[in-house]
Amino acid sequence: MGIEKPANDSFFETFSSENFHTICDQLADMDSDLGAIIKDHGYPPMWTRPNTYETLVHIILEQQVSLASALAALKKLQEKTITLTPENILKLSDEELKACYVSRQKTIYLRSLALALVEKRLDLDVLGRLPNDDVRSQLTALKGIGNWTTDVYLMFVLQRADIFPVGDLAAVNALKRAKKLPKETPRENLLEVAAFWKPYRTVATMILWHHYLSSPFRS
Q1: Out of 54, 127, 173, 184, which could bridge 84 as a Cys pair, Cβ 3.0 to 4.6 Å?
Q2: Nearest to 132 by CA among 87, 162, 165, 168
Q3: In whole angstroms, how far apart are CA 60 and each of 34, 91, 114, 175?
């Protein structure tokens, strides 16, 4: 595994295309339910995104809406700005953002993030070198960015290997189905199940998402 050492001496573990399938195989050996998913559907995609303002915009747009709706809004913003940068978003009026399918609330979030980057209160390159807790602390200090958005950023962008996004309905529902757990299973129990996959909970989650997206009946 690729292990990096941040400045404060806390370690974090990442994954890459070189070790992704190896980690999947290890998880399949550890957990027969994850192994069954890989056997039925093959390896999951290794979902990744670049460390850019546009990526964080995309994740914010995905909050509490369908992936298709978020992608439609992102494409409209890309068309409108040509280059989706903090500076270009700050030039758009409320009406222009609304025409790009961005809600009033998310308009506030996108501008708040843009200002933080323009004013150098947030540096995405620096975030990439920080431990998970420090990344979470900096991002969740911004309006409209909570734990789910931070989890997706850590998993997709920074490729941190040991994140379980307990606030993600697709991952939670896939976990319940894979483990044949009742729908009313509490959050604490789900976290206990996910703890078994340490230190590779991110990759286990990608296997669960693969299960969710590959199954004909989603719940």
Answers
A1: 54
A2: 162
A3: 29, 19, 12, 24
Helix (H) or strand (E) holding 201: helix 201-214
What 3-state class would DSSP assign to 17?
coil
Phi, psi of 177 (to 5 degrees): -70, -45
Q: Which residues pair with 13 in a beta bridge?
A: 3
Residue (of 73, 63, 66) closest to 102 by Cα position: 73
| Rg, C-alpha atoms of the chain | 18
- Could you report the per-residue pLDDT of 170-185, keeping only the tens digit for each? 999 999 999 999 999 9
With residue 12 as reference, give the H or E element that holds it: strand 12-14
- Rounded CA-CA distance 212/60 in Å is 21
Q: Do 161 and 202 touch, CB atoms closer than 8 A?
A: yes
Q: Which domains does the chain have, with CATH numbers?
A: 2-47+163-214 (1.10.1670.40), 53-157 (1.10.340.30)
Tokens matching residue 69: 């709706």
Kindly report, residue by residue over 54-111, the tens digit of the pLDDT: 999 999 999 999 999 999 999 999 999 999 999 999 999 999 999 999 999 999 999 9
DSSP E strands in 43-174: the ranges are none
